[in-house]
Design brief:
Layout (H helix, E strand, L loop, with lengths): L1 H10 L3 H4 L6 H7 L12 H4 L4 E4 L20 H7 L5 E4 L2 E3 L2 E3 L9 E5 L5 E3 L12 E3 L9 E6 L2 E3 L6 E4 L6 E7 L2 E3 L10 E4 L1 E2 L2 E3 L2 E3 L6 E4 L6 E3 L2 E3 L6 E4 L10 E2 L2 E3 L2 E3 L15 E4 L1 E2 L2 E3 L2 E3 L6 E4 L11 E3 L2 E4 L7 E3 L8 E3 L2 E4 L7 E3 L8 E3 L2 E2 L3 E2 L5 E2 L1 H5 L8 E2 L2 H4 E3 L4 E4 L46 H16 L2
Parallel strand pairs: 1-2, 2-5, 3-6, 4-7, 5-8, 6-9, 7-10, 8-11, 9-12, 10-13, 11-14, 11-15, 12-16, 13-17, 15-18, 16-19, 17-20, 18-22, 19-23, 20-24, 21-25, 22-26, 23-27, 24-28, 26-29, 27-30, 28-31, 29-32, 30-33, 31-34, 32-35, 33-36, 34-37, 36-39
Antiparallel strand pairs: 37-38, 40-41
Length: 492
């Protein structure tokens, strides 16, 4: 018992005994983080780079220079070809051609390519070594065929003939540990139908805090057997097809499965209208051949195809063993179903604590494949009372519950749920039907980073209503936090 007490003190879970400030939502979210194991780490090189080099436009920048702050290089290509593991490249304000990255950092010495502090850096054309018509290419087909341990951060990437930021390994050897963070990626692939941020055969990829919009295909596309992906805190909007497309892509080689992924805290809207606005685009989040992954705290609204589509076309398996928790999904009148489970082989998927609403005149919350996928679970959701099990016949909530689903779920409309749905403020109203009506699902923070739960229980949807009351540390809440902390500490 003494050891357990010490563990709890170290984790900051017992505020009275250990003095931890659980009033700080950031401290609370950090102390109780329950993300699955992914490739997301904090590279030591970010904190202590071995060397820092600079790039600036001519005439100050010149590739014959030494690369120092007073003698910067001129091109991104020269910079990435000149640095070594642990180095950082800071790019000063200006407009640049892109680059092809073919060398790697190491696990203890990542390489960083980023905009300098307060710099406005536009990269708007493929570089001289680029192969695919992309602007930033992270790829080599020489040696072991991989690039790893890079951070790409802080750029505006626009106007590519094909992809904006493009990472590719191969079926035998994946790129890995690539962090793409804090970029604004837009208007790429408009004529070729290509994506803003693309990761193929790239495992342990982190795509975080980017804005990707008005691209000719998807906002973000993770595919080709890329495992342990993390897509977090991005704003994906006005893309012709999907906001986020996840595709195992078996026909390209590899096992055709994306596994161990985390998709959280993304805001995804106005996607799927097609390149000319005539419709025909993909879901806000497409999942083809995705397994053992977690989608939580995502806000999806005004997307013109499906909200979240769980299916099998190109992947090696029907997407399965996935958990969809605390998402808010609002479909417009011209949209499709909120959530689609499109095959009987899409087994063991869970839908818990979500708000799923549709303004369509007959489509609604969940379209479940005919034949009832094994292990399908759905409960504690706020829904519109329309469901189907054959992609045609619409049934109400009572009939859906008679099938064994959504026993504790309830029907409510946006005007009763949210502060200002017309103005796209989907935080919960005081007294919203979603407040305190969820169940413990292992999610301890919301889309804003505020702690869960607040008040007497977990709130349904991406946001937890912030009443100012501390959470009640009941056994159902407290014990999962203890177990998560113990598991994390025993890993070290």
């Amino acid at each position: 018992m003494h050891k357990l007490w010490m563990v709890l003190c170290l984790a900051g879970l017992l505020s009275l005994a250990c003095g931890a400030d659980l009033g700080s939502s950031a401290a609370y979210a950090t102390a109780t983080s329950d993300a699955p194991e992914t490739g997301v780490i904090t590279p030591a090189a970010v904190l202590s780079p071995q060397a820092v080099y600079y790039v600036a436009p001519p005439p100050q920048g010149n590739d014959a220079n030494l690369g120092g702050i007073d003698s910067p290089w001129a091109t991104l290509q020269h910079a990435v070809d000149s640095v070594h593991p642990g180095d950082t490249i800071l790019v000063q304000s200006g407009t640049y051609a892109g680059t092809r990255i073919e060398r790697s950092g190491t696990q203890d010495a990542w390489i960083t390519l980023r905009a300098a502090p307060d710099a406005a850096v536009l990269v708007n054309a493929p570089g001289p070594n680029n192969v695919h018509g992309s602007i930033i290419e992270i790829e080599t087909w020489e040696g072991d065929g991989t690039v790893s341990y890079w951070i790409i951060a802080g750029f505006e990437v626009a106007g590519a003939p094909s992809w904006g930021i493009d990472s590719r390994g191969n079926e035998d050897a994946h790129n890995h540990h690539i962090h793409i963070t804090g970029n604004v990626v837009h208007d790429n692939g408009l004529e070729s139908g290509r994506t803003g941020i693309f990761a193929a055969f790239t495992s342990d990829v982190l795509i975080e805090g980017n804005e990707s919009y008005h691209n000719g295909e998807h906002g973000i596309y993770v595919n080709n057997s890329s495992d342990r992906f993390t897509v977090r805190g991005n704003r994906l909007h006005d893309n012709a097809n999907c906001g986020l497309h996840l595709n195992g892509d078996w026909g390209m080689g590899g096992d055709g499965i994306l596994s161990g992924g985390l998709v959280e805290n993304n805001i995804i809207y106005n996607n799927g209208a097609g390149i000319d606005g005539s419709g025909g685009g993909g879901a806000a989040i497409n999942m083809d051949g995705v397994t053992d992954s977690l989608l939580r705290n995502n806000l999806l609204y005004n997307n013109h195809a499906t909200g979240i589509a769980v299916f099998n076309i190109d992947g090696a398996v029907c997407s399965q063993n996935n958990r969809l928790l605390h998402n808010t999904i609002l479909m417009p009148a011209d949209g499709r179903w909120g959530i689609l489970i499109a095959g009987a082989a899409c087994a063991n998927n869970e839908i818990t604590n979500n708000i799923i609403y549709s303004d369509h005149n007959w489509r609604g919350s969940i379209n479940l494949a005919e034949g009832a996928p094994q292990g399908f679970r759905s409960d504690y959701n706020v829904v519109v009372g329309r469901f189907t099990t054959d992609d045609g016949t619409v049934i109400d909530l009572a009939s859906w519950q008679a099938l064994g689903y959504d026993t504790h779920s309830l029907v409510a409309a946006p005007g009763d749920l949210f502060i200002d749905p017309i103005g796209y403020d989907f935080h919960l109203l005081a007294g919203s039907p979603a407040v305190d009506q969820g169940t413990a699902a292992g999610v301890t923070a919301d889309l804003d980073g505020n702690r869960r739960p607040v008040g007497n229980g977990y709130d349904i949807g991406a946001y937890e209503y912030q009443s100012g009351e501390p959470p009640l540390l009941t056994e159902a809440i407290f014990l999962p936090l203890v177990m998560q902390t113990l598991e994390r500490i025993t890993q070290y």
